[in-house]
Amino acid sequence: MLTVGSSRKPALELFPFISLFLCVIGVLAFLQNLLVMGDIGATEEEAAQPQIFQTAYRIEAMSDRIVLHPPDADLKEIYSSLNLEELAGLNSVQAGRERDSNSKGRTLFFEPTFDDLSLQLALNEISSLNLLAKEHGIEYEEFVLLSIHSGGSDTYHYLNRVLDVPTFKHIRSGLEIAPPDASADNTQ
Amino acid sequence: MNLDSLTDMVSNAVGVLILLLLMTALQSSNPHSEPPLPIEHQSGLLPKFFYIHSDRIQSIDVNAAFANGLLAASESNSEQQEEFQISADFMGQRHDYLTLTMTPVDTDNWPTFEDLGQEDTLIGKAARSLDKKTDFAFVFVEDDGDGASFQEFERTKQWFLDRGTAVGWIPVTENNPAYLCSWSNITACRYSPSHYGNGG
After folding, report:
1. Which residues pair with A54 in a beta bridge?
2. CB contact, 8 Å: A176 with chain B?
3. Are A36 and A115 contained in the same domain?
4. How close B19 gets to chain A, by Cα (Å)?
5. Number of domains in chain A
6. Which comes out higher in pLDDT, residue A19 or B106?
7. Which of A30, A54, A156 faces B37 most closely, judged by CB atoms?
8. Lowest CB count within 10 Å: A5, A75, B43, B140, which one?
C-alpha cells in the first residue's frame, strides 16, 4: 500500500513539563513552610525569654556612702492609666525623682548605719511603680542596679541584705563595677 | 521513558536538597543575642568557681573543699569554726556541714590572667572544661581597695563571654568572705549568672 504525502508529527511528551511544574510548586511550598516555621520558632523564643523592658535604678556603693540615682524614665504611659488616688502618689514620686536627678543623685552617708528610711522609701517607690505597671498591663519594670566602687563591697553586701527582706525580694537586681566616670564625690 | 525527563527530575530533587542544606546552615549560624542588661537571673546552669585576688586568679574545687571540710570535722574535737586547709591555695572555715567560707593563701604562686589563656596550665584546663550549655563561671572578686581585682575581673569576664560562657560574680571582703554551700538558701550562697551590657 502506498502512502502519499504522509508526514509524521513529533510526539508531544507531557512528562517533562509536568515534572518541572511539580518541582517548582514543591520548592515554593517548601519555602513557604520554612518561612512559617521560622516565624513560629521566633515567637516561641520570644515567649521563652522574659520580656526585658527594665529600667535601671542605679545605686552606687562606696565605702562610706551610697548614692541613689533614680531613672529619668518617662512615666507618662503609666500616668495615663491611673485613677486620681494613684496619680497623687505617682506625682510625689516623680517630683522627688526630678529633684534627685537635678542634684546628680541623693547621697546617704554611713553614720554608723545608712539612713534606712530614705533607702527603703526609694525601694518602696520601685516596688509601687512596678506593681502599678503590672496591674495596668504596662510593660515597665524598674530593677536595682548596684554599682560597686572599689572599697564599696561591704556596702554592697549591706544593700544586698536590705534587698533580701520579703518586702523587696521581688525587685530584680544586677551588679556592675562602677564605671570610671561615676560620681564618687557627690555630697548632698 | 525519555532519559531527559529522568535527568530533569533528579536534578530538581538535588536542587531542593541543596536549598534545604543552605537554609539549615543559615539558621544554625544565626546566634541568639543576649538581653543587654546586667540583671541576675535564675538559671539551670551550674556554677564553676573562680577566685580573683589582685592580679591573680585561681579555680576552686568544690568537691575537694567539702571533702577536706568533712575530714577536718571528723578529726576535730571542737564543735565548729576551726580553720582547715582546703587546698594549697585556700584555707576554709566550716560553719556547718553545708556551709564554709574561704580565704586565699599563698597568692603569689597563683596563676595570672595570661595563664587562663594557656591550654597547658591547670587554670587554663579548668576554664576550658566549662561546658557553656551546662555550666557558667562564678567569680569571687576580692575587693582590695585599689581596684586591681576589679580590673582583672573585667578582663576575665570578657574572656569567658567571648567563649559564650555566662558569668556571675560577687565581691568579697574580710567581713564578707567567699561562701561555698553544699545546699543553703542564704543570700551569700545564691550563685546567679548575669546578663551583661550597657545597663543603666
Report:
1. A141
2. yes
3. no
4. 9
5. 2
6. B106
7. A54
8. A5
Find residues 86-105 of chain A whose CB sits inside 8 Å of chain B.
none
One domain, residues A64 and A32 = no
Q: Is B129 an interface residue toward A (CB < 8 Å)?
A: no
* Cross-chain CB nearest to B35 (options A20, A26, A52): A52
Instruction: Give the closest of A19, A54, A160 to B5, CB-based.
Output: A19
What total of structural domains would you count in chain B? Answer: 2
> Strand pairing of A65-69 and B99-104?
unpaired
Query: Measured between CB atoms, does B115 come within 8 Å of chain A?
Result: no
| Residue B12 belongs to domain spanning | 1-31
Q: Which residue has the higher pLDDT, A131 or B188?
A: A131
- How far apart are the CA of A106 and the nearest CA of chain B, in angstroms? 16
Q: Which residue has the higher pLDDT, B97 or B89?
A: B89
> Which pLDDT score is estimated for A52?
47
